[in-house]
C-alpha cells in the first residue's frame, strides 16, 4: 500500500464566490458544493493520481455523512474496508465560505473514536498529527519500513509550544505551511526555520501557498515555484499537496519530483470548488500542466509521467534521494 490516511472525515459544505455577509444580512454564493473533507482530502488526492490508498477513520450515518461516505466509495484506488460507520452518530460538518483568495469556516465537531489499523498489508507512507502520541500500530509500521509523516495545525493559543519539536523525533518527514513554520520555530526567516526543524526530523517541507514550496533533507535544500492560477477556492489545497508528496515518496521519487507533483496537484485544486472533490486525476493534471505552460525542461519528467498512462510509477527506481530514510 502506498499511502495510509488517518483522522476525522468531515462533511464539507462549501459556498464559493462569496464574501462573508455582515451580521443580519444575506448574500448569495456563485457555487455550492458538498465534498468529503478533513482526512478525506488526502485520501482522495493520493488515490486519484494512482496511489494505492487506504482510509482509516470513523464516520457517522447522518444524512450528509451518508452522502459523503457514498462519494468516497466511488473513488478508484481508495480502500475503505477499515473505515467504520457509527450508527446514530453525526459526522463532523464544516461550512466554508470562500471568495477564492481566503475562506472562513463554521464547524460542528464530534469526537468519533478512531479505529486501530489492522496490518493486512505493508504500508509505504502514513501521516499522523504531531500533536498526539504516535500509536503503537504506527510504531510497528515504522519498524517495518513505513515512512512516518507529521502534520501540524494552527495553534489558536499563540503559544507555539517547543514540545512539538521533541515529538517530531519519532517522524521522518514534517509538512507544514509558512505560518506554522514561523510559529513553531519562533523564527520569521523560513530558512532559519528549516535549519531548526532539520535538527530533529530528516526531511521538512514548508508550503508557501501561491509561492510554491521549500524543503530541506539530507540531500540539501530544494524549492519549487508556485503555478499562477485563477483561484476559486483554496479549501483543502494544503492537504492535497501533502497527499501528492506522500504518493511521490511512496513511489521512491526524488524530492524535487515530489515537490513538483504536490505543487501541481494543489494548484489545480484551487481552481475548482471543494476540497477532496477538487483533487485532480492524472489526465486532468496532464491537461492542467499543458494549459499553464509547464512544458519546459524543468517539468519534463512530471509531464512525461502524467501523459504516459502505462508508464511505471517509479521515475527513479534506484535513486536514493527519496525522503524515506528507512
Would you write up a description of this structure?
It is a single chain. The protein is of the alpha/beta class. It contains ten helices and 15 strands. It has helices at 39-48, 63-73, 136-143, 163-167, 178-185, 190-198, 237-250, 255-269, 282-291, 300-307; strands at 3-6, 9-16, 31-38, 53-56, 58-60, 78-79, 84-86, 93-98, 103-108, 125-129, 147-151, 173-177, 203-207, 213-217, 220-224. The strands form three sheets. The protein has a nine-stranded mixed β-sheet, sandwiched between helices. A four-stranded mixed β-sheet has the order 3-2-8-9. The protein has a two-stranded parallel ribbon with strand order 5-7. α1 packs across α7, α5 (178-185) crosses α6 (190-198) and α7 (237-250) runs antiparallel to α8. The radius of gyration is 19 Å and the shape is globular. Mean pLDDT is 88; it is low at 317-326.
Fraction of residues in helix: 25-40%
Radius of gyration, CA atoms, in whole angstroms: 19 Å
What gross morphology would you assign? globular
Sequence of secondary-structure elements = EEEHEEHEEEEEHEHEHHEEEHHHH
Q: Which regions contain 5 or more consecutive residues with pLDDT less than 50?
A: 317-326
Distance between the termini: 16 Å
- Biggest sheet overview: 9 strands, mixed
Structural class: alpha/beta
The portion of residues forming beta strands comes to 15-25%
SS elements, strand count: 15
Provide the spatial order of strands within the biggest beta sheet.
6-4-1-10-11-12-13-14-15
Amino acid at each position: 500500500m502506498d499511502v495510509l490516511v488517518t483522522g476525522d472525515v468531515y462533511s464539507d459544505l462549501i459556498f464559493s464566490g462569496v464574501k462573508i455577509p455582515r451580521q443580519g444580512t444575506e448574500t448569495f454564493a456563485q457555487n455550492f458544493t458538498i465534498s468529503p473533507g478533513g482526512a478525506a482530502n488526502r485520501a482522495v488526492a493520493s488515490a486519484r493520481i494512482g496511489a494505492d490508498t487506504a482510509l482509516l477513520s470513523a464516520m457517522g450515518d447522518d444524512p450528509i455523512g451518508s452522502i459523503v461516505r457514498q462519494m468516497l466509495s466511488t473513488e478508484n484506488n481508495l480502500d475503505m474496508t477499515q473505515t467504520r460507520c457509527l450508527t446514530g452518530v453525526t459526522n463532523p460538518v464544516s461550512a466554508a465560505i470562500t471568495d477564492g483568495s481566503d475562506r472562513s469556516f463554521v464547524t460542528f465537531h464530534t469526537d468519533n473514536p478512531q479505529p486501530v489499523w489492522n496490518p493486512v498489508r505493508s504500508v509505504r507512507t502514513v501521516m499522523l498529527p504531531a500533536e498526539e502520541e504516535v500509536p503503537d500500530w504506527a510504531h510497528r509500521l515504522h519498524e517495518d519500513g513505513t515512512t512516518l509523516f507529521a502534520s501540524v495545525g494552527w495553534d489558536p493559543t499563540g503559544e507555539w509550544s517547543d514540545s512539538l519539536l521533541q515529538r517530531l523525533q519519532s517522524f521522518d518527514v514534517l509538512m507544514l505551511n509558512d505560518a506554522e513554520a514561523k510559529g513553531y520555530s519562533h523564527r520569521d526567516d523560513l530558512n532559519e526555520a528549516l535549519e531548526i526543524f532539520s535538527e530533529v526530523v530528516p526531511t521538512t517541507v514548508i508550503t508557501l501557498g501561491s509561492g510554491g514550496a521549500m524543503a530541506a533533507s539530507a540531500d540539501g535544500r530544494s524549492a519549487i515555484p508556485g503555478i499562477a492560477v485563477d483561484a476559486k477556492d483554496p479549501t483543502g489545497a494544503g492537504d492535497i499537496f501533502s497527499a501528492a508528496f506522500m504518493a511521490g515518496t511512496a513511489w521512491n521519487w526524488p524530492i524535487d519530483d515530489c515537490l513538483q507533483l504536490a505543487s501541481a496537484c494543489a494548484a489545480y485544486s484551487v481552481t475548482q470548488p471543494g476540497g477532496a472533490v477538487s483533487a485532480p486525476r492524472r489526465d486532468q493534471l496532464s491537461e492542467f500542466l499543458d494549459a499553464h505552460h509547464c512544458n519546459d525542461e524543468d517539468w519534463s519528467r512530471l509531464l512525461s509521467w502524467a501523459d504516459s498512462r502505462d508508464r511505471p510509477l517509479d521515475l527513479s527506481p534506484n535513486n536514493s534521494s527519496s525522503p524515506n530514510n528507512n
